[in-house]
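From the pipeline queue, job 12 of 40. The input is one protein chain; the requested action is below.

Action: predict structure.
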Amino acid sequence: MPLTIVVTRDVEARYRGFLTSVMLEISAGVYVAPDMSAGVRARVWEVLRDWWEMLGRGAIVMVWRDGGAVGHLSMEHLGDPPKEIVDADGILLVKRK
């Protein structure tokens, strides 16, 4: 079960309450779960996405270890321009789509 990180910016307080029920808040708006399963991660993201679509405020990014992805990281985001992780000759970069 991989480490999962969620970063929120300018979102309603309900996100904090929900995320602290399943993750550790290590800094304002930064949440980590050292052993979150793929099923739990998908459900957490579904709740965050549904709230964000309803409320439409702020930005949320979720990152987790994924052995099959570029750089072994996968990323989901709401409220920011879409991004992807790319490998540029062994250097990982974040590129706007």
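Job complete. The chain has two helices and seven strands.
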